[in-house]
């Protein structure tokens, strides 16, 4: 009888540590969500609620809703562009023996090694010098820059030899190149395509510094939230923050269910 | 090498066609801006005018004006502290998750451990403000416990910045170190045990060295992401002690001094490259 009890006592510090760290990890999020239901004007103790007034405030704020819509549009279009460009490049490099292919891969993945801040500054200076007005389009361009290398890397790593054999078979049976791509390659790769698309969406959706520097009148949600922070602690910021968190979790769940479950099957 | 047939050269031309859009995009919106930025860093802003004569005055100013150099040193200090603390906190957690949590619970435990990862970056820093600022959770707790008589603020200083960063990177590192630990074959540890090593010795001489590459990759990622971040120090650290990204943003927002901001950005890139070269022998990431 002493064995298991002693074992439990021995591992007590371990579980204490786990509990402490989970507490640390969850503390700010728990506080954020809890005080989004605050009934008074400050998201600090004492908690008096629950109330949905700040969620009502969020959903009647036209600027915030517009920023939300902007974020969705930018995230979807820039991710689509990144996936298409990344897919074509990966297809070219995986299926054809091109000279300098190592160098080309390095070039395409190079943006992964540079801070977003620096990418943002480079774009800002370049657009300024060329007289390109700052807009959601320039934000989208920046988001393709950061997501293209990611999509390329994911898709390139998934293009194996067995797929090349099936593509060759299709070609031998008379399929043209575009038919091979749309009818053979894309369907075989679709979990990877889906994953890279959704990963890009979450990155674009959450990206701040590029969106902040190269946008002007129309802004994305993180930039709008940023400008809300100037008013200090505010339960409305808690409410929109909790809402964004919910959307991200939902996206991750979809990704997990669709991609990883289907891969297991 | 056989001479290429017409069919081969036509498919090769098509391959270049597929590759071209991505190359052009990266060239136009990544490489060209970096080159233009490097060029700007060698120009100068005088009054409100841009003087396009090559000069090293921005770089000279960087070393001459103490607040600029100080912000780089602050950044390096904060980043090193954050990296070290995050690794020290995350490793035991990842180890417990991989070795002590029953296998069927591991996935859930890991998903939970990185759940707040998915809050928006700006919102995450703001959430820490709710905990750390005057009248916030921590200040209230201390009041209730009678430890302090007045509300205290823990925000607007280096400590708050470090806490905000560590929170994010503990999650990231737990993930990378866990991935490394579960890949280790248990036979190494069994062999160590068969040869008479106790659990502590086996950890120190077998597990730890084998996970060192994973730690280094995670630590490097932490370093790069941390030193280039503007949001966390701006929201949590405030303006009393500036980090390099904050100084860069000040040059742009307050003074529209693009040449100076560019020079500072080049310094930031140089620091990251140096750190990369220093860790390169551990960073053998499988090339994609």
Description:
- The complex is a heterodimer of chains A (265) and B (288).
- By secondary structure, chain A is an all-alpha fold.
- Chain A has two domains: 2-37; 62-264, MetI-like fold (Orthogonal Bundle).
- Helices cover 77% and strands 0% of the residues of chain A.
- Chain A is built from twelve helices and no strands.
- Chain A has helices spanning 2-10, 12-34, 53-59, 62-95, 101-109, 116-130, 136-158, 161-172, 177-206, 209-213, 221-228, 235-264.
- The longest helix of chain A has 34 residues, at 62-95.
- Chain A is globular, with a radius of gyration of 24 Å.
- Chain A starts with a helix and ends with a helix.
- The relative contact order of chain A is 0.14.
- The mean pLDDT of chain A is 89.
- By secondary structure, chain B is an all-alpha fold.
- Chain B has a single domain (67-279), classed as MetI-like fold (Orthogonal Bundle).
- Chain B has a two-stranded antiparallel ribbon.
- In chain B, helix 7 packs across helix 10, helix 8 runs antiparallel to helix 9 (199-227) and helix 9 (199-227) packs antiparallel against helix 12.
- Chain B is globular and about 70 Å long.
- In chain B, 40% of the residues are buried.
- The model of chain B has no long low-confidence stretch (mean pLDDT 87).
- Chains A and B meet through helix 2, helix 4, helix 5, helix 6 and helix 7 of A and helix 1, helix 3, helix 5, helix 7 and helix 9 of B.
């Amino acid at each position: 009888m002493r064995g298991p009890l002693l074992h439990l006592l021995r591992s007590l510090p371990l579980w204490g540590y786990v509990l402490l760290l989970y507490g640390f990890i969850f503390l700010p999020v728990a506080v954020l969500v809890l005080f989004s239901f605050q009934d008074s004007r400050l998201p600090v103790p004492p908690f008096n609620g629950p109330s949905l007034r700040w969620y009502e405030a969020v959903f009647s704020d036209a600027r915030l809703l517009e920023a939300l819509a902007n974020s969705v549009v930018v995230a979807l279009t820039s991710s689509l562009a990144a996936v298409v460009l990344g897919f074509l490049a990966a297809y070219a490099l995986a299926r054809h023996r091109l000279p300098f292919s190592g160098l080309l891969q390095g070039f395409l993945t190079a943006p992964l090694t540079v801070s977003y801040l620096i990418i943002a500054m480079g774009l800002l200076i370049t657009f300024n010098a060329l007289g390109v007005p700052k807009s959601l389009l320039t934000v989208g361009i920046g988001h393709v820059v950061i997501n293209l290398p990611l999509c390329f890397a994911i898709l390139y790593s998934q293009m194996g030899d067995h797929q090349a054999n099936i593509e060759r078979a299709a070609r031998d049976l008379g399929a043209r190149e575009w038919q091979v791509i749309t009818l053979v390659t894309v369907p075989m790769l679709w979990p990877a395509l889906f994953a890279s698309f959704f990963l890009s969406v979450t990155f674009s959706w959450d990206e701040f510094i590029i969106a902040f520097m190269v946008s002007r009148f129309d802004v994305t949600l993180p930039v709008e939230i940023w400008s809300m922070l100037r008013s200090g602690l505010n339960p409305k910021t808690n409410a929109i923050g909790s809402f964004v968190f919910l959307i991200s979790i939902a996206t991750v769940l979809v990704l997990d269910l669709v991609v990883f479950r289907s891969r297991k099957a | 090498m056989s001479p290429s047939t017409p069919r081969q050269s036509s498919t090769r031309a098509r391959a270049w066609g597929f590759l071209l859009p991505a190359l052009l995009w990266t060239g136009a919106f990544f490489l060209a801006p970096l080159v233009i930025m490097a060029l700007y860093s060698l120009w100068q802003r005088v009054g409100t005018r841009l003087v396009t004569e090559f000069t090293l005055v921005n770089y000279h100013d960087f070393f001459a004006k103490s607040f600029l150099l100080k912000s780089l040193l602050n950044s390096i200090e904060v980043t090193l502290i954050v990296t070290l603390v995050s690794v020290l906190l995350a490793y035991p957690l990842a180890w417990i998750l991989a070795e002590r949590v029953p296998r069927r619970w591991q996935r859930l435990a890991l998903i939970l451990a990185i759940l707040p990862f998915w809050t928006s970056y700006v919102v995450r820093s703001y959430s820490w403000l709710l905990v750390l600022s005057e009248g916030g959770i921590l200040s209230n707790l201390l009041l209730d416990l009678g430890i302090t008589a007045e509300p205290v603020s823990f925000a607007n200083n280096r400590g708050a910045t470090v806490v905000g960063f560590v929170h994010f990177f503990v999650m990231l590192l737990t993930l990378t170190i866990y991935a490394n630990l579960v890949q280790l074959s248990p036979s190494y540890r069994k062999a160590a045990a068969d040869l008479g090593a106790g659990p502590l010795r086996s950890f120190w001489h077998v597990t730890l060295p084998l996970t060192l590459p994973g730690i280094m990759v995670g630590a490097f990622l932490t370093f790069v992401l941390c030193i280039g971040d503007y949001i966390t120090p701006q929201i949590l650290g405030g303006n009393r002690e500036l980090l390099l990204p904050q100084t860069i943003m000040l040059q742009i927002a307050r003074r529209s001094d693009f040449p100076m901001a560019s020079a500072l950005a080049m310094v930031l890139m140089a620091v990251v490259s140096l750190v990369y070269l220093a860790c390169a022998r551990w960073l053998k990431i499988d090339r994609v």
